[in-house]
Every structure is written in structure tokens, then in C-alpha cells.
Amino acid sequence: PAIIRRKDYEPFAWRVPEIRLDFDLGLETTRVEATLKVTPNPDAEAAPEIRLDGDGLVLESVAVDGEQRTDWRREGEALIVPLSPGEHVLNVATRIAPSANTQLMGLYASNGMLCTQCEAEGFRRITFFPDRPDVLSVYTVRMEADAGAFPVLLSNGNPVEQGTLEDGRHFAEWHDPWPKPSYLFALVAGDLVARTDRFTTCGGREVELGVWVRSEDLPRTSHAMESLKRSMKWDEETFGREYDLDRFNIVAVGDFNMGAMENKGLNIFNTKYVLADEETATDDDFDAVEGVIGHEYFHNWSGNRVTCRDWFQLSLKEGFTVLRDQLFSQDLHGAAIKRIGDVRVLRAVQFPEDSGPFAHPIRPDSYKEISNFYTATVYNKGAEVIRMMRELAGEAAFRKASDLYFERHDGEAATCEDFVRSMEDGAGLDLAQFRRWYEQAGTPKVTVEQAYAGDAITLTLRQSVPATPGQPDKQPVPIPLKVALFDRESGAHSGETLIVLDKAEQSFTFDGHTSAPILSINRGFTAPVVIEREISRDDLVFLAGNDDDSFARHEAMQELLLAYLLGDENEDAREAIGTAAEAILADDALDHEMRAELLSLPPFAYLAERSEVYDPGAMVVRREGLKTWLGERFADRFASLHDTLEAPAREAGPVGKQARRMRSLALGYVAAADPAKGAPRALAQYREAQGMTERQGALAVLAGLDGPEREEALADFYTRFADNALVIDKWFTLQATALREDVLGEIEQLAQHPSFTMSNPNRVRALYAVMAGNPLAFHDASGAGYRMIADLILELNLKNPQLAARFVPSLGRYRRVEPGRAALMRAELERIAEAGELSRDVSEQVSASLG
Ligand code: HT7
Ligand code: ZN
Prior knowledge:
Distance between the termini: 16 Å
Bound molecules: (3S)-3-amino-4-(1H-indol-3-yl)butanoic acid, zinc ion
CATH class of the domain at 4-191: Mainly Beta
Radius of gyration: 28 Å
């Protein structure tokens, strides 16, 4: 496939200021008539023809200015129509087959309804159009359909007209006054009901809100609606952004490739991020719904009002919007836990990407298939990069700069460079060197040396950005690091300082310390880097017990854990973990959620990332062994926490949530130390659970054990929730996560279960994405786990290429794995590469992985 390069950007020769779409909707066949007003683009070179993208369309007719035309031609999937200079009206009629659309891009069927997904290049699967984000049009959409099968007809913007037609048919027309790129187009037709509400904006606009679902799901929509209203208010208060239409609709669909989509005024969501009630959703699910609703809503400004010039600029909207949704959740529920969770995801998902064969800058330079670039790098590292600018500017100046960005670029298709310039001009920053964060891939490493002399401590910091594919040589980047120096006697520090490391090597001296202080660095994770510092085990134990920055405290504990898990087995290193855990368990000032965070072991993905050579089998033994050791050492404490937190875990609000978190963690430690004690406790928690958090917490422990308790709980869970697809996803996930001897065989069985289907992305992810993260299943020494994932990729390759491609990086990590397994992983990649017709998505990922 052809390589698209950022440096080759050219504006499109034509503008399309208006488009009208007439849909005659049906599941098997849908007819689309597109009427485009086109005018020459004065900012581009004139062209004698217009090139319209298409993909899988049946062309019926083409007319220009009311005259049928036959002088068009096809180039691959594109349609090229000769046009004389000046303004024209172009009519193109096409047919599509939504039921046959298994890729879930364009117009497709899900549970009898019709819906769209156009980002990034799905609109060309609906009609011929310049399907690129810098062509902005005002859309008018008329939909006609059978009124019985599709009583609800929705599109972007505001409703204009609706009415009945002959033969049980009806129609609706919608108009969106805001010019938008084609990737933000959406329509939905189906038998849906809505939870409705209203929101009055700061400027006095009355907005009608709707959350549309199948009727049986209506009772699970109140959290989504409340989350939407909170998002609208927060964006007004925090970023000064007001909503701009009379309607805002959210629709939940069961078959969806990603989390949700920010189509203008008509967000389409994976049901997973809309539906929640206590009985079926965990506390984490509730937070995820709120976070994703916020994210999509915030795109109304960061993405829709100001959109991207081309797909290389994706982080312009995604990085900024992730930062906005993270700040929203921090403001609502407290910054510390959210920050720890966000950094955990960054390290477990983005760091491996940044050190692997698919490493790319947050603003990539080239791609073959843009869908492959909806990555943790573009999203999460992109957010970290903007967070650093916020740190450098300070909150008030950052807000000024963000206001300037929205004001300057409202209605435009902008670039990352535009954003950086607004940050410079609005916040008074010089970001010349900072721009390297947009250009270079790879996670910078910072080493820290300390020297104490007189009353001064000197920190010598050295940075290096590792070589990544296509980028062998790297330049230093500015790295903002918040530091504090703890006095050994008083156990306190005299304030935080922000230092900026912008050279390969730099020293920073702090005086006034009568003894060598204890360094707390990268507090709050101000920079997305790996820190390697000289620090004694005792000092880490001190920080893990006492640092007043929750992130840094958590980090110190993680450093103790990593030192033991990644180093040579060492009794003293383990003992230090015990001492720190003791202090954490005894610290009454901690809430239970933070206590649980501090006592959680690092995820396998991060352990793999930090290992020189990853031996998954050995790591499972080491990590689970440590869990058993901690469980035995604090057996009474964990049992007592599990008992005493039973009542608090039933409370509403944060206290209940905190208690539930600690209680399930305690249960895990009890079971790790003594499965015979853990199993009945877990079964009791399962049976008496008052909501999904407690129930899932118990089942997660049981799923890893043997015995009748496990079987009873799993069987009960399945029958109790048989009609709820999202909960059945959990049933698959819980079993696929278990660290059991024959978990791979059990996963093979689950793939044959009548409730398993390859047609639903949530179900596929619930089993296989989870399996790919289970070190015992995926890395089974026989290579059968790798074969299973390769077979899955081949099966999904043409059916749903986006979903298929998401599984390739798990095999692509072979370079970090011990040689025996690495050879088996690579062999599976080679088998895929030789397997015949590969989708663009899979082919790009596989060739990058093979290097
Ligand atoms: N902007 C949305 C991206 C998205 C997407 C991309 C490719 C294929 C399917 C997709 N569904 C949604 C999601 C977001 O970041 O808000
Ligand atoms: Zn987004």
C-alpha cells in the first residue's frame, strides 16, 4: 500500500461549502443521493476535475448542474468528474449494503438499527466525497425509512422537519449549521427510546439532551445523562466553552470498533460507555462512562469547532481532548487517584508502543492506514505533552492560551503547530525546543545522580531519547520535573520546585540543607519519562510511607516493587517492601482507595516493558510469589480489613467506593496466602454482593482458584446476567484474566461457547485482548497462545481489519521476550505476512513488527 507523508500535504482544489444528503434507508440496501455545492478553492492550485473518494460504493449516476454526465472516470475506488472553473452543483447517486458491512465503518447495521462511523475515512463508504478533514461543509440530511423498523431518525445538528409518507414510511430532515468535515457526519435509524433532559448554557441557550438506547436499556442511562450535564457545565467553567446547538444526542450501539465518536451534535457510543447501574456496572465502569462522555462532549470544541487539517494532526484534537477529560475526572473525583491510574495506563500501553517496532511521534510523519494511528501515543502521550505545556505555563496562563487557540482557529482545520503557537503567544512561552516532543518518538530516560557537599545538594541529570524505527539520532527535549527535598530530621520539605532539564546533561544545586535530603522527583508525573535514580532502599521506604505528593508516594512504592521483581531475588529488597506496606497499612490518614493503590502490584505489561529480557513464566512466579508473601505477612490485617470494610463497602458515595476497592484487594491477598481461606470468603462476598463492584471483585479472585466455589460463582454469574451482553463480556474477561495452569485450554473452550461471537468487537476484546495480556495464556511455552492470536488476526483480517490490526502489536513485542518464545512469536507474524490478501491495517502493522 502507498505511504502517505505529512510533508506532502496539499490543500484540496475545491471547496464544498454545502452538501445535501438524501437517504432511502434499508438494512439490505440503502440509496444515497448526494448534492454538493462546489467552488474552486482560492488557496489551492486550480484543477480541471474533482476527485471524490469512495470505498465499496455502487455508483448509479452523476450529474453536474442538472445535466447527467458520462465523462467521469474511476481511479481505483475514487470517482473523478471533469469540472470547468467556477461554482457547480454535483449530484451523485450511490447504493450501499449496510447489513453486509462487517468492518463497522461507514453505514452499518447493529441489532436491527442503522448507524454510522465515519472517522477517519468511513464517509467514503457512504457516498463519493473529498473525505479529508480540511473540507468543511454545512450538512442537510433527509432520511426516509420504514416507520415500523426505524421509528427514530437522527442526524447531526437540529431537526428541521419530519412527517409520514405512504406505505408505512416516514422521513426526517436535520440541518447542522456548523461547517464540518465528513468524518463528523452521523445518522442513526432504529427502534430506540430516549432519556431526555435539558441544559441551559451559560449564554442562556436551552439545549434538549437525549440518550438513545434500546427500550430494555433505558433504566441504565441516568448516569450517562448526569455525566453529560456535568461535562457541559465543567467545560463552561474550566475552559469557557459553551455548547452551540439546540440538541445534543447520544446513541448507544452494541457493535462498535472503539469507545465512542464525537459526531457533531450526535455522539455515537459503544454501549459499554453509556449503560451503567449498580447491579451491572462496577465503580470503574461508572468512571469510564463519565470519562468517555466527557471526552466526546469536549471534542465539540477541541475537534469539531477547531478540527484537524490532516490526519497527521490527530493529536491536536485527541491529545488535547484526553487531557481535558483527565482534568475533568480529576476535578470531580480527586486528582491523586486519577493521576496514578492515568500514568499506569501510559506505562502499560504507551511505553511499550514507544519502545517497540511501531513507535511513532505524537505527530506521525507517514502512514499507510490512518486507523492504525489511533494509538496510546497519539492519545495519551499527546495528552502528556500538552500537560507539560500547562505545567510550564501555569494554570491561568494555560487557560489564556487555550482561549486564544479557540478564538484564532474557530471554524478552521488547524495543525499541531497552530496549537503550539497559540500556547506561545497566549502563555508567553518559548516552545522552540519543546516542539521536539512532537517530532521525536521514544520515551526519554533521565538518570539522576546526587552529590551532597557543604549544605548543598547537587542533582546531576542526564537525558537520552532512545533510537526508534526511522529515527536513529535524537535531540534533548525540555523535561519539566517537579522536585522536593525532604529533610531527614523533620521528615518535611520546604516546598516544591519546577526544574526544566533541557540539555543532555545538567546540574541543579539546592542549598540550605544541613544534612543530605531525600529527593522526591517527577512529582505528579510532570514529565512522561523513565527516571533512573540513585536512591537507597531506606529512602524509598521513607517516601513510600511519607511523601505528601500522592503520586510520588505511590511511585516510591512502585520503585521498591520493581527493584525486587526485576532484580535478582533479594531478601532485603522484599523486606523493604514489607516495611513500606506496614507503614501504609498503619497510616490512618490514608483513604482506603489510596491505600489499595499503594498496595497494588505493577501490571505485567509494565514489568515486561522494564525487563531487559522478559521471561513471562518466571515473572508470573516472582510476582505471584510476592503477592503470597505479602498476603502471609499481613494475613490478619487483610482478613480484618475484609471483615471490617463489609459495612462501609455498602455505603453510597466516595466512602463506599474506597472501601470496596480496598476490600477486594484485601480479599486477593487473603486468597494468595491461603486459597482454602480465600475461596469461602470470596464466595461469601460474591453471594452477599450488593452491586457489580463487590460481585466482580469476588469473582476475579475466585476465577483464579480451583474448587467448587469457583464453579458455583461462575455458573451463577452467567445465568443471572445471561441477557446483558456487557456483563457476559465480563464473564469472558474474568476467566481469560485468571492466572491458572490451563487457562489457555479454558480460553479455547470459551471461544466455542454459544455466547461467543466474532461479530461483536466487545466480545472479541473481552476474550482475546484480555488473553493477549495474560502472561500464562499468551506466552504459553508451546506457542499455542501466539498461534491463537495469529489465527484470530487472520480470521478478522478482511471481516474487520481495524479490530484485527489491534492484535498485531502483542506479537510484535517479540524482541523483548526471551529467545525461545521470541522465535515462536516472530514465526506467527511471518505466517500472517505470507497468508495472502492482507488488509492495509494488518499489513502495515505486520510489516512494522517484522522490521
Ligand atoms: N475520535 C474517535 C475516533 C474513533 C474511531 C477511529 C477509527 C475507527 C473507529 C472509530 N471510532 C471512534 C474517538 C475519540 O477519540 O473520541
Ligand atoms: Zn477523542
